[in-house]
Amino acid sequence: MKVIHQIIILMTIWAMGTNPLMAQEQIEKPRKKVALVLSGGGAKGMAHIGVIKVLERAGIPIDIVTGTSMGSIIGGLYSIGWNGTEMDSLVRKQDWGFLLSDRQDYYSQSVINRERQNTYFFTKRLTMGGKRQVSDVGGIIAGRNLEKLFNRLTQGYGDSIDFNRLPRPFACVATNIINNTEYDFHSGRLAQAMRASMAIPAVFSPVRLDDKLLADGGLRNNYPADIAREMGADYVIGVLVQSKERGINELKTSAQILGQIIDQNCKNKYDANLAITDIPIAVNVSGYSAASFSKNAVDSLIRRGEEAGMANWDKIMALKRQLGLADDYQPVKLHPNAEALLPVNFREDERQMRPERDQVLGSVGFRFDTEEMVALQLDGLYQMSKRPLDAELTLRLGKRIMAKTQGIWAMKNHAKMALGYTYRYNDFDVYKKGEEDYTLRYHHHQVAFSFLGVGIRNMVLDLTARWDYYRYAQMLKLAPVGHDDLSFSDDHFVSYHANLHYNSENMGTFATKGAKFQAEYAYFTDNFGDYKGSTGISILSAMWRISLAMNHRFTLQPMLYGRMLTGKEIPTILGNTIGGQWYGNFIEQQMPFAGMGHIQWVDKDFLAFQIKAQEQLTTNNFVLFKVAMAQNADRLRELMKHHTLWGAQLEYYYRTLFGPVGATFGYSNVAKGVNLYINIGFNF
């Protein structure tokens, strides 16, 4: 028996030597528990990561974690093994603009829906409940992308679980807005608890849980040190990321006033919880707000968290000694589940999806520019769940008015058929030789039947039959330099179109990789077969461009484009026009040309080349330089015999959620003088 007893002892010692965690648990004496409490504060909560890195450097064992809002996200991840270094890397590589929206992954969308994303700054999805009642509640942002991220980061803990059984016991706070009471998560789905705790009212949709409607916990308990004590904490280390009190002279902007309202409403229990904190670590977050999610802001906030932690280093080490631990002691470092480290797949195959319930997708676009001043565009898309039918209504308000309605049938082979009506009222000035020639105002009615075939994700082929009717309201002659024989008379066309769209660009406005190609052949008639007794009018147009990244900031983008018309008698309204910043800026067939801010007619055959240099100064600041050259003639064989048109422009733009904001300075030998153009918002 003595021999057997000795063998058992030897085996136990061997097992302890091969299992560091078990060995450490055996060696450690029972000690008092330490809790880490992380306050809410939106983006300012990034500072929590910096403090955690200092605590890990000091070798402080954390036994309990509680948090609110952003503190619940950082705390929830820390409780399941994400360490400070891993979270530092995680938050720096995120596209926060995308995460804090409901936008779909850019490449997972069809070419048509990518254009929608580059037109509207705000889109809201409303799901229809029983008897056509809207079932979505509150919040501009539903938080779909955040939910996908949280579900990935908490892999291994996706089921409903007791949070006390996590590697580090955890709790977080939400507010039940049904009765304005505090709701503490001690169990459930971890990702859902984190999502509920950070649901800022009116910004993020609240989370439904049984008979409760849960929103941001900061409304009731923004710094939950009391919960940590209830969970058995003997010592509390707290991280505070609240902004300093603002006086009346510091509340000048709407953002500052909103921030003040939020801060004042998050003071419940704050003083009492601060009083039971052993080591309060207040981070200097001046200059940053709850919405400071830029890369530079995230970097600075993490660094400030580290600085605040190091400023309390002596207190932290004193606590370590109170716990009976040696200065060089280091607890076993935890890590998240391996699956949690895999990339998040935000892509969805639109072609295979119908909504589970009928839904309405509403979008809003707003822009200001020095040509049209103010314009607003609204779009509503109604999608049926049980039938492959969609209905869409688009309304544009401004100097130029547009109303469009169409019905869409989505077929099983991913193709679509659409029947629509569009009304446009156009009002624009036409220039010649750099001087204003005349103002044209007209009504345009269009009925179109289209067949759209989607071959691959980046490509769309559509065939369309159209009826167009133009009724001219006014042509106001302004200068003697115009066409002496120019006239406009009401006209109608029956036309047939074949379009090929290809787009692999990684973003709509400031692309750094990918290519875009678009080609169209159109045949115009006035009686389904010919035009005014002769062969109909044929129009061939094409555009190709590619983005070539020279380095991580500088991109070159060459573009080749043109339009050619053939026919015995071509109405002016179908002719070639150039000028402006974008395709179709004033009129459907308008082509952009560097240095020209206004529209001008050119000859029947037009071919142009443009090169754009784009420098990304910071995350959202861009400087662009464009040079364009073109040839035009009434006969293709004479294209290179005419003088060359050229233009250049320098642009500065700042990228915002509402679209690009900036100015353009240009000059062209087609126009006189320097052109200045100011733009706010997406183009439509």
Q: Any overview of this molecule?
A:
The protein is α+β, with helices and mostly antiparallel strands and 684 residues long. It has 14 helices and 31 strands. It has a 16-stranded antiparallel beta barrel with strand order 12-13-14-15-16-17-18-19-20-23-24-27-28-29-30-31. Strands 1, 2, 5, 6, 8, 9, 10 and 11 form an 8-stranded mixed β-sheet that branches. Strands 4-7 form a two-stranded antiparallel sheet. A hairpin with a 5-residue loop joins strand 15 (401-410) and strand 16. Helix 1 (2-18) packs across helix 2 (20-27), helix 3 (47-58) runs parallel beside helix 13 and helix 8 crosses helix 9. The longest helix is centred in the N-terminal third of the chain and has 17 residues, at 2-18. The radius of gyration is 32 Å and the shape is elongated. Mean pLDDT is 86; it is low at 1-27 and 131-135.
Determine the N-to-C terminus distance: 89 Å
Strand ordering within the main sheet:
12-13-14-15-16-17-18-19-20-23-24-27-28-29-30-31
Largest sheet: 16 strands, antiparallel, barrel
Which percent range fits the helix content?
Answer: 10-25%
Radius of gyration equals 32 Å
